[in-house]
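Mods, move this if it's the wrong board.
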Amino acid sequence: MDKKKIIIETLKREVVPAMGCTEPVAVALAASKAKEVLSEDDIKEVSILVSPNIYKNGLCVGIPNTDEVGLYIAGALGIVAGKSEKDLRVLEGIKDSEVLSAKKMLENDVLKLDIKDTDEKIYIEVFVRGKKGSARVIVKERHNKFVYIEKDNEVLFKEEQNKNGGGYNEVLKELYSLRIRDIIKAIEKIDYKDIEFLLEGIDMNEKIAKAAIEKTYGIGVGAGFYENIKNGVMADDFINNAMMLTAAGADARMSGLNMPVMSSNGSGNNGLTAILPLVAYKNIYDVDEEKLSKALAISHIINGYIKYYIGRLSPLCGCGVAAATGASAAIAWLMGADYDKIDGTIKNMIANISGMICDGAKVGCALKLATSAATAIQSAILAINGRIVPPRNGIVAETAEDTIKNLGMLGQDGMNITDRVILSIMQKMEKAV
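Not the wrong board. Structure tokens:
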């Protein structure tokens, strides 16, 4: 097993730019693909089915280039103007006239969207019918993974399920069965030029965060921290700057600001949380680009490691329990922690915010991201000072790996009813509007 090669391949797949919240973007991507397969402009019917988790995460977020929120307008924009070759940047460059056309499609009741009864966390099915024919596409497992394409009832593509594994899923299984310290040792030996591309995420995510500090978006969590730091109410220190930047990124993204973010493991907010605390670190402390790129690799890979066990979409807040834990381990590494203390950092994080729920993507996520960024730094500092939660303390186990697996059992098995209750509450409030 070539650890370095697998890590580089995983980073190139999982750390990619995204425009807008990933769930609406994925719906737009699937819709655009269906329209392209149909090859007709006069669309008579669009029917979209999404998994409960896609519905939950896409219900309340702003869509770039519009004043709208949610999956309906995203699906309509995918039909009207989306180009699937843009992948998760499918909503980039949408024009005002195209937004008007998408709104007209919704007004004319052309597009229907419903929740599919499925255990799949990521599932989007789009059926389109025109004057001459029809097309159907299905996205599953990852937000941009097409597993089924059909035109006029003829199957053009169908991913064959390999019972014995194989492909990228097998790569992930192999990578995330390793000890975290062995993954970090491999990252330390990777040539800088092979992961230099990760630095693009620093520039991209810092830019969107700064935009939301200069102007209030959402509820203005990042801008609020900035005002209080400027006025001397809050200290101008590492933790508060990390909170400010990370919250501001979420303020902008959840409001639908027309700027891309660097995502991590299928989530733009995960990308903000995995990267922006490290931006706060490099803005305060002296760190060269090679070391920063390796810290980014640690952050993204540990985010992926935890999401492998809790699921890419989960009842748990992936930003808090996965991406922030990745950032925390990376910060500990930057601060000179040994492997035992990096393990301790992960244990501290999971002991602290393992109960943070995901109740959908929305402007209020900025508060959770701020909390997660602060906890990431606190957990690293405490571990470096030898303050580590002991094993058999709640779900904390002897090792970081077993602690993550316990977290996975909590998220995958223990909180399914929680997910259903959250969705039920959200639907009830939506109907009341």
